[in-house]
Amino acid sequence: MGQPTPSVFCPKGEWTTIEYYLGTVFLTKTYFTDPGTKVRWRYYSAGLPPFWAGKFTGHAQITLYPSASTWLQFKPDVDTTITWEPVDSGLGEPPPDPIDPLAH
Predict the structure, then answer these.
(1) Single pTM value for the model
(2) By C-alpha distance, which of 68, 1, 7 is closest to 32?
(3) Which of 10, 14, 39, 44 could form a disulfide with 71 if both were Cys (CB 3.0 to 4.6 A apart)?
(4) Residue 89 dihedral angles phi and psi, to the nearest 5°
(5) How far apart, in whole angstroms, are the C-alpha atoms of residue 6 and residue 27?
(6) Is residue 53 within 8 Å of 15, Cβ to Cβ?
(7) Are 71 and 51 in contact (CB under 8 A)?
(8) Cα 86 from chain centroid?
């Protein structure tokens, strides 16, 4: 039995934290939403680059670079659910679980 597909609901026009990590991560994930849904994204980190932004329609592959902390946020043009594929860290072990910012 595989891992459940992670997902986050994102309301139209609001920045929603998709992932938040404390500790070094270096991974690439593919994020999905409904075809035709336009999403702006932004990434903050304590490392380099400290800020990065972009946009996609339907799906995108985004890399999180090594840093002491990293936040990834999405802002869709309609209410939508974002899902992503679990990936290997490239270090021979799975990436750490993201921290739920609402749980702290």
Answers:
(1) 0.77
(2) 7
(3) 44
(4) -70, -10
(5) 16
(6) no
(7) no
(8) 11
